[in-house]
Amino acid sequence: MQSGTNKDNGGVVKTTLNAGDEPLLEVRGLTKVFGTLKACDSIDLAIGKGEIHALLGENGAGKSTLVKMLFGTLEPVAGEILWKGAPVRIASPSDARRLGIGMVFQHFSLFDALTAAENIALSLEERTPIARIAERARELSRSYGLPLDPSAHVGDLSVGERQRIEIIRCLLQHPDLIILDEPTSVLTPQEAEKLFKTLETLRDEGKSILYISHRLEEVKRLCDRATVLRHGRVVAHCDPRKETAASLARMMVGSEVHAVVRAAPPKDADHSPLLEVAGLSREPSNPFAIPLRDIHLTVHAGEVLGIAGVAGNGQGEFFEAISGEALQDKAGMVRIRGKDAGRLDISGRRLLGAAFVPEERLGHGAAPRMRLSENLLLSRFRTDAKSYLTHIGIIRESTISAATRRIVSDMDVRKSSEDPEASALSGGNLQKFIIGRELDRQPAVMVVNQPTWGVDAGAAAHIRQALIDLARAGSAVLVISQDLDELFEISDAIAVMHDGRLSAPVPVGEATYEKIGLLMGGADASTPPTAAMEAV
Amino acid sequence: MRIELVKRPQHSALFSALSPFIALALTLVAGAIMFALLGKNPVQALYLYFIDPLREVWSLHELAIKAAPLILIGVGLSVCFLSNNWNIGAEGQFIVGAIIGSILPVLFPEFQSWIVLPIMLLLGIVGGAAYGSIPALLKVRFNTNEILTSLMLVYVAQLFLDWLVRGPWRNPEGFNFPQTRSFHEFAILPELLPASGRANWGFAFAIIAAIVLWFLLSKTLKGFEIKVLGQSPRAGRFAGFSNARMVFFAFLVSGGLAGLAGISEVSGAIGHLQPSISPGYGFTAIIVAFLGRLNPLGIVAAGLVLALSYLGGEAAQISLGVSDKVARAFQGMLLFFVLASDTLIHYRIRLVGRQAAPAAEAPHGNA
Amino acid sequence: MGMLESILLTIATAATPLLIAAIGELVVERSGVLNLGVEGMMIMGAVTGFGVALTTGSPWLGVFAAILVGAVFSLLFGFLTLTLVTNQVATGLALTLLGLGISGMAGEAFVGQPGLRLARLDIPGLSDLPVVGRLLFGQDPIFYISIALTAAVAYFLFRTRAGLTLRSVGDNHTSAHALGIKVIAIRYMAVMFGGACAGLAGAYLSLVYTPQWVENMTAGRGWIALALVVFASWRPWRVLAGAYLFGGVSIGQLHAQAFGVGIPSQLLSSLPYLATVVVLVIISRNRRLTMVNTPASLGRPFVPDR
Predict the structure, then answer these.
(1) CB contact under 8 A, A113 and C165
(2) Residue-wise pLDDT tens digits, B57-68
(3) Cα separations (Å) of A490 from A58, A136, A323, A331, A472?
(4) Residue B47 near chain C (CB below 8 Å)
(5) pTM, rounded to two decimals
(6) Phi then psi for C111, rounded to 5 degrees?
(7) Has residue C201 got a pLDDT over 70?
(8) Considering the domain A1-97+203-253, what is its CATH architecture?
């Protein structure tokens, strides 16, 4: 049944579909090309009835491109799709929905200005009145334990609630196959566990699920079979339960990923506080922003402090406040290297020795249509004014070019031309450049929001190691991340941000996924876990 | 057939340079068709428009007179548009610059000294900048859309000028003509080369302004700031630049240059104030700025091209009997083609044949 | 006819073109497109309406031709911004400049010609009622069309599935595309609707308001219509209220001029423009409210990945 004779000789090829079982969906030689990049290179895949099938691969492996072709938003250049044994052409999402394919998007496809019910109505083919749709959504949400208020405006909802709308919307279409793209990236471990239960219920009802992830543990926990992609090609079909996380990682990455080395800080090292936040509160600056409430934290020299939290709990607002993109009411709310910085703008804080890397690479950390050398000037024209500018403000191009070359080689940034525009780089390479741009200054305080979001494994390891090395060399490093694995890998202590509040830091030795997960869900450390679950 | 855009990994340097020429060529083709439809010989008409005015030295002077305000305003607008501030009220700033700059010769005609002209120019700049600062203030302070406010202020300025020259500033010895007294000799902007034609120092101001702004935009941190804030405001804030200050900077620079253009026009080319002192220079300069790809040196060239269309319009009216309004239609088309050609800088354009049969029509298509 | 009655009547004639143009632009902006070319489309409608009515002798033909030309002219804008993804602000300006240029050229022959006026629609019996009779039942037909249009657009946007789809495109075109909604097709239709409305509004000016052709006779009304959409927070009935408010201001200043209140006419004439500025300031100073009301995709370029 599994048509794919494996094209790669490195992977393990197994077919667990029993002969005679007709797959629900079969894909043969599916190919998609963007410009010169083969995003998907003759993909073969078969999904049986009533199975949870994992699609594994790291960022940029072609997972999203593949599912977009299955859902009709992208058109393949070659290959065929068979649905219940018959070849089909899926030209649009409504074609996909009509066949019985439903999709839960990673970066949701919701409309903030509309209500939950209106959002659901938009993807239903029939012309049912909104009130009736709301009623059905309410019933369905009750039966699957996914609480939902159909009249709420999506803009006011948390990411977890948004995902529920996506799932309910998908289920209301009575799909035979449900595609979920990285669904747990916005959930706490406990919420993820609830989602898995729902998915298992759906499987037991005979529905098939294509589950896209790069998180190996949850794939092992949940999925019956897995297809592994690398550089747009299928490298393996396997049973994830019979694999180890390490063997799956090898298939995904293609080589051993160097584990990050977190050496113990030297005994005699200086531990003076370099970044202190005291009583930081902030009113929301726009209707969708989260207010910050009385945040306290201290990062010492030599230390990496991680801040965990589900997206949209105030991390962005916190970063803006620390970086000085938004000023504080009192100068003492933020102190950098012992000096009050709350009333200093971002340049003033940089001059005190701080460096910042925001979450959004294109459009925040870098100007997309500017060259790398210009993007170097972007964050360093004040701190390096003496070498980059003349005293009347003329830009010294040659000095900046030399510094750009130095950063590119230090961070191993791969690029296609001498000084390309930022948008021409891949996510991982641009992130390496942006991190390298700040590291190059040897900052005393480094604040990073989502250091490896959307970055391939090799670049991610490089970046994480660089952050640890910076701390061990005597700087204070604050890492905000939604990736718990990452925080456990690099942090000395982890604090959790929920609804604009920050918990006390938990030393990494005492932290467990469960403990941090509960805090992410809004539990007070003192509240019993059951009560905390209700609060989610 | 369907047109698809394919994003280029980076902008194309080739098409950055070519796009204004593609746009000009397309405009000429469209213009030829238009003349043919009007029953005129297209070749002769285009010749009259774009070649004939270049054959005589006096006519080159006229070209410089028309180009000066277009370039002055256009380079100022480039600062605005690059920093994503949509000042479309340069016409109003031009008028107010002319009015404020004319205070001395109109209200104090007996004050005659060499210092009058420099003061007039300065007041013109101040007047234009002050008028430009109104939409800037409203944008920064009240979040008000600058496109609409700057434009509304054009109508206000035009009506104000109309009132002045028909009312309090009307020439007492002027037989009720709606104009101010003629400027005295110390209030007249001198001609550059009096021997060969009328072109005045306004053109020199335009070239100087273009060179200064070119240097500012391409070599200095200020220019970098302008471009960063225009392209990605959030990255600009991350860099530590202030968007509010940039709004003021852009409007003050462009308003000031429009004001300078205004006072240069009345003290150089006209010699008094009257109800209408501009054939829409402030709006045509928007076209000039885009045709020059928002590069001050390109804007010099673009200003000359658009000035040519004004002159050609006058010539064609005399020789062909077509309206001088044709020139305005030409200018409008040119901006359209410029914007369309600029797409080639960031995208490759692909023509795709229609799919044999669309699998199923989505019900959402019928809005 | 009483003084008050005649003032109210003229307010309606001043408000109607603003209302029609603004309702059209409201639909365009609700779909996420900012078309600053209203002034240009309107003046094209005005010159077409006048010219066709004059040459055929039928004002209604003029009206239909103006609607058609407005819609076709807006396609130029649609092609550039939707297919070629040009900057919407700059392209809208280009449309205005082009419209002013072409109309000036095309209308040269009509300058000074006496125009045709669209006949009033008297509803027998009712239009003879005191005060409200003429006002409600003896207006020109386009007055009734403008009210019906407002109601229809309000119903369409908030009570129909197609209206919901249009709003979704204006809120988030990426999500809409991911769900399979035809973003670009919907926007083309919205842009053309806006063009048709602007064309009709222009025809109203040259066939009802002042039945003649004068170059630049729209005199900034297209821009005021744009401001009205912002003023109305993208809601149809508020557009109507705003249009009548502005109609009131412009008629008020005309009457003040007629009575010779001692204020120069030019300064009175600038009142509608100054009022626009003031109203914009008042409505946009609340940043939060503006942010909530503005269609989130407004003016943003959209290139679908394929």
Answers:
(1) no
(2) 888 999 999 999
(3) 20, 46, 22, 31, 11
(4) no
(5) 0.91
(6) -60, 130
(7) yes
(8) 3-Layer(aba) Sandwich (3.40)
